[in-house]
Amino acid sequence: MSGQKSFNVDEGAHLRSCLAWGALAGAAADAALAASWDPLCGWASTAASALPWDAAAALPLPTALALCSAACLAVGAANHVAWSRSLHDGTWVGGSRAPGAAVHGDARLVSSPRELRRLTSGWDAGKAPEGGTLVVGSLDGSLRLLDSVHSCVLAESGEGKSRRVIIPTAYANFLQGRSLVVNDVKGEIRAMLSPAMRAAGTHRIVDVMFDRPASSARFDPLHRPVAALAAEGPGGAVRELRELARCIVPRGERGDAFFTDGARNLFIGVALRMIEDPTIPAESKTVMSVSAAISPLGGKGAAERLDELVASCPPGDPALPFLGALNGERSGAPGIISTLSTYLAEYVDDNVARMLHDDEIGLDRLGEEPTVVFLSSSSASGDYRRLVQTFVAQALSALRTCAAAHAGRCPVETVLLLDEAASLGRNERLVQDLGEMRSERIHVTWVCQSLLQMQSVSGYSREEAETILDLLKDKVVLSCSNPDTARNLSESMGSYTARARSTSRTRGASSDSSGTSDSLVRRPLISPDELMRWTGRETGSLVIRGGVPLALPSRDITETFLGPELGMTSPEAERRLMEAALTGLEERNRSAPPVWRGPSAPGAGQPPKKRIATPGDLGLTTARVALYGAKGARNPPRKRPPSGETAHA
């Protein structure tokens, strides 16, 4: 059984060390040989006349010293060769590989520099990358990239995934002219990359800071539905609003499906009613107005406000099919309104509302113009997960629309680099689109800690989490502490035929016997418990590409040529970059826009009459009239009795 190997070792340094020890040994041997040369020559000349000692005695001392030094250096070089062969024998920890036919599998861990150069693209100092979308390690001073469509980076907290993978990957794609959407939770990626990117002047740089809304570029979640309404009519707007509703109202448990679906339909109906109304100012057509339109106001409850909204819709309004079923108390409207209001709270916060209007992002330009978008959402000042999820979902929608408009391929390749992707929650769009957009020049790099995190934090089912990992074909593992994830990865790497030796010993009354037998066994290339001991800092970068595992050295960015190029020369220099990026920001969004609070009530100071939506208004068949009160009109509000009279039941 061999010990754990480290692929982070510098082979050139090991060779130099072996040769240095060989030279030292040669110097010591030369000194000893020079001191004993005369006695050795005398002994050799008289030892035996039958042996050619005379030739040895005639050998000049300088030649003997040179031969001795050369022999010691050769021993050092041979030691390095043996060590290198052991390092690159196709295993990490395990029994020796059996020769001959691989009856139990032939999986190999590719780690030799020659094979790694063939399978990856290079990026040398002062040059642009030769290709590839994902930085997976370094080799002989150059960074190595993998040409990946969709990939997954697995690393525990503190393993340096940002400094070893994410920052180099983002800058490599930037230099190759691709657009980028980077989920930068704490803002450190933007701090390290933004100065160099802005200085290059080749891309449009957009800073979306949900945790600093006063200084952020403005993002309007309703911008795409409004644009779709103008370009395609109500059908296009409904399509975009469905996408937005899935982000705002996440999928509930099976028992909550009624309220979840109802809340989504309610959002679609209110938003559609608002954005299609030309009398409402454009600056007020925001998510905040959707919330205000169904909030209690002027002594009217939420259900009454909804009745009022439905009553304001003309017959045939496309919003009625989404609103009519919620009209009145009997349809579960209070619970549905409460559900939607709860989920809208993150969007209508007075602080973040300052940036959720008058869109400046231009998501429709991502696939047509080189653009870099940094998304920061530190939880230190609030919970912005759904806002980031909304942005990512709409970015995917915009990119796929762009690809459809350009013969199925975006003019500008785009990479979505999603750090801490599990914290974004369950993204229904991502599950659907990963398998379909492989040829559209849209790439996703998903960074998380484990399969368990995708289930417990994101809310994906086990089947969905495994499906996502399968669709993310290329995986980079810096560490893995979850047993289920380790087992899945171990199985994907396969097994090999190992030679096992067993020794038996039998002790009898009059004699003892012992025996040794060799056998061939199946052994996982890297077993789950071994994989849970793998770390990027100590072992290297484990890359699984199409079932073929690669092991590369993994370097911190400051140990590569890229650190000085980005100004990351010391901890103090990095601290200054962070301070420059996070302090002294311009206040661009001082206040939230005016809010539309719903249609005016008919009759000043009077409660609106409750209106029964007819099947004709809703575009429904008579078979569904019962849903809206087929027994007749709902009970109207009781009139106040005249002064001096008593109301009787």
UniProtKB/TrEMBL annotation:
UniProt region (Disordered), positions on chain: 488-524, 589-649
How is this protein situated with respect to the membrane?
Multi-pass membrane protein
Keyword Metal-binding listed? The answer is: no
| UniProt keyword annotations, A-Z | Cell membrane, Membrane, Transmembrane, Transmembrane helix
Q: Which GO terms describe its cellular component?
A: plasma membrane
Q: Name one Pfam family in it.
A: T4SS-DNA_transf
**Which family does the record claim for this protein?**
Belongs to the VirD4/TraG family.
Name of the protein in question = TraD/TraG TraM recognition site domain-containing protein
Species of the source: Collinsella tanakaei
